Amino acid sequence: MEFRGFYYPVDLAINKEGRIYGLNRSHEGDPRGVRICMFDYDSNYFGAFGSVGEEDGQFTWATSIAIDREGLVYVSDEYTDRISIFDSEGNYLRKWGEHGDMPGQIDGPASMAFDNDDNLLISDHRNNRIQKFTKDGRYVSSFGKEGEGDGEFNLPWGVTVSSSGDLYVVDWRNDRIQRFTSDGEFKSKYCESGSDEGQLNRPASVAVDKSGHMYVADMGNDRVQVFDPDGGFVMTLEGQATVSPWAQEFLDASPTEASARYESDLRVALNARTGGTYEKRSHIEHLFWAPISVKLDLEGKIYVTDRNRHRVQVYRRV
Amino acid sequence: MRRAGFGATYQEIHENVSDGYDHTVDHLLDPNVSDGIQQDMLRRYHPDHSGGLGTAGMAFYWLHRMVQTQTPLREKVALFWHHVFATGYGKLAQGRVLMDQVEMFRQHGFGSLKTLLIELSRDPSMIIWLDNQDNHKGAINENYGRELLELFSMGVGNYSEDDIKACAQAFTGWTVSNAKYMKMRADNDSLWPYGRLNLHFEFDEDDHDGSEMTFLNETGVFNGEEVVDIICRQPATANFISRHMYNFFVADEPPVPQWPYREPRDPEAIQILSDAYFESGYNIAEMLRVMFKSEFFKSENVRSEKVKSPAELVAGVLRLTGESRKLTPKLQGDANLLGVMGQQLLNPPSVEGWHTGTEWLDTGNLVERINYAASKFADVNKPGIKEMIGRLAADAGGVATPETLVQDCLDQMGAISLSKTSMDALLNQASKTGKSEIGTDERETDEDILGELLRLVAATPDFQRC
């Protein structure tokens, strides 16, 4: 599908030139939206690549995207257990990945990050471990197993590498973040289950800035939480989306709908009525609804992929 | 279990038998039993389960619930109310708000009809569906008021045109926030800029006509809640809801438009249910308890007297084959087929809902249904089928007769009864089997023979009924 926009975006990656690759998962009922779209912070659009399927260059359950030092784009598919590699313009190059639970095999590559040696870390979530591969798919090492203890995981999701080289893993069903050395040795853990400040509910992603502050996509609570390097709670981001340039173009082209929109009050309060259903954020447009990925650019701007709202919200630390 | 849920496996039936019939009924009605649905997994892997852009993702989600739920009756009751209080995607243009209505049916569908009708009247998808956002003080829109009486509670012939107007007046001001924009987005099928915007209820007091009215021979100042209270006190409501319940859970009745002209097939059963309605204070769970424990429900006269709806057929097959025990994108294909078979979930053809019974079947979709059921049993490596074949082979032990083999297959498929014609066909197939072959180490032979028999059972006309 070749058009500008998102369709259940689940992750993004930013190259050194500032080009952003937005990974769209779409859904089984309408898989036309499966693709990677290329754009930048100023909303310039550069095209799209990829489609639904199991052939080369296609995806079924696209879940994560990462860029190596050479600018090549890696995309993981947690249904086919495949890592697909494209050049910076989206031309398909090659793939690797084999299903299984032996070292070097994968079962559900949910997230990826390049470490400081340009090796690829993969959150091998159904095997409850983190695996390290070279860029061409040669197995290097792994750590982790199923459980609730230190260094154990329950369907881990996001993985990221800090500037100091430490690995941060989003331990999804244990509702916490775990921190490891670059060799996979456990260092510390943060947070617990819940919806209060400092608690997490099925978090999806974490980004760590140069000062060690953590930005966690607390997807089950529909918010992003910020923690200091020791895991102390700093603040919560609920989402405050404005009308993006692409959205404004749509409204400019649809004056009748735009007029009705401007007459409306969309900033309704969460109350017993809006909170009576499972997906409260479905009612309130500017707030996060399933924030699924947090990434930082070279300037430290924070990009939150807001899955169910088909957009990216960008923050700057002040 | 076919009528109270979506069928049961051999193991589940044996557990129920061991627990006892009454205990099984009480367990099905127990509101404290968890449905076991892993919402977090659905939300992680299936974006449209929460985003609800259209019907496809929501149908996937609901079918998954029907197949996986550990509270099948609660899910069946949600389907029941979706049928009775039919609300369609065609006018709402979003799956999320419709699935929220179904969630409301899960929460309130076992409780008091009065509470349910009030929640229904506040339900934002119902408001848009029947244009109640256009029902204003001084300019009433009768749509919701009429259908509340005609299709959702009392049935045709039990109220007057003046009652319709009074009912509509009671619901003036019952609207949704930002109604003009939301209606426009629905009309335009607008996904932009940021996906669907869910609707929520708003009471506009300034637009509500609180003047005195006469409704069903009672005079006073009535808001929507008071009107619902009056409706629930009517014997016509008890009879109408009871007949719906009988049609959905016991045996097929003619289509609802014919009800004013055709007596129920079992008037005594309808009376029993109506009495239970009043004795329990309009409680749906208690009506169901009375129904499931009644002789009229257990009677041989109503065995296999219901044609399965497409949802019942597909969900039942998937529960038997076990192929959807783990989340898989392939379930979308099954969900899509529901529409092909005539029951697109969240999109009934009109406010009358679907015409059920033999009207589910025409020459086209009957073939579709039979082919679907038979083809699903073609792959003997599916976990549920493997388990069935394993048990069949163990039971046969090399000495099976065609009769015992066929009966065993029917038990494995959920204690199915067959007509003589179907039984003769299966016995004929089974008699071609070498008796000594089943249950030996000839595994491939077991799978071939037993798999074929299971497919034949699925292909019988009897399998289309419950």
Biggest sheet details of chain B: 2 strands, antiparallel
Report the mean per-residue pLDDT of chain B as an integer.
Answer: 93
Please state the overall shape of chain A, judged from the principal axes of the Cα atoms: globular
β content of chain B, as a range? under 5%
Classification by helices and strands of chain A:
mainly beta
Overall number of structural domains of chain B: 2
Mean pLDDT metric of chain A = 95
Shape of chain B: globular
Please report the two chains with the greatest interface, counting residues with C-beta closer than 8 angstroms to the partner's C-beta: A-B, 50 and 44 residues
Task: Give the distance, in angstroms, between the N- and C-terminal Cα atoms of chain B.
Answer: 9 Å
Number of helices of chain B: 25
Radius of gyration of chain B, Cα only, in angstroms?
Answer: 24 Å
Task: Give the assembly state of these chains.
Answer: heterodimer
Strands of chain A, count: 29
Strand composition percent of chain A: 35-45%
List the helices and strands of chain B in order.
HHHHHHHHHHHHEHEEEHHHHHHHHHHHH
Give the spatial strand order of the biggest sheet of chain A.
1-2-3-4
Using only CA atoms, what is the Rg of chain A?
A: 19 Å
Structure explained in plain terms:
By secondary structure, chain A is mainly beta. Chain A is built from two helices and 29 strands. Chain A has helices spanning 245-253, 255-262, and strands at 9-14, 20-24, 35-39, 45-49, 51-52, 58-59, 62-67, 73-77, 82-86, 92-96, 109-114, 120-124, 129-133, 139-143, 145-146, 152-153, 159-161, 167-171, 176-180, 186-190, 192-193, 199-200, 205-208, 214-218, 223-227, 233-237, 291-296, 302-306, 311-315. With 466 residues, chain B is mainly α. Chain B contains 25 helices and four strands. Chain B has helices at 10-19, 21-29, 39-45, 47-51, 56-68, 72-84, 89-92, 95-108, 113-122, 124-129, 143-150, 161-170, 179-188, 224-232, 235-249, 267-279, 284-293, 295-298, 310-321, 331-340, 363-376, 383-396, 402-412, 420-431, 443-459; strands spanning 174-176, 201-203, 213-215, 218-220. In chain B, the strands form two sheets. Chain B has a two-stranded antiparallel ribbon. Chain B folds into two domains: 10-302, no CATH class; 383-464. Chain B is globular. The chains are: A mainly beta (318), B mainly alpha (466). The interface between A and B is large, with 50 and 44 residues.
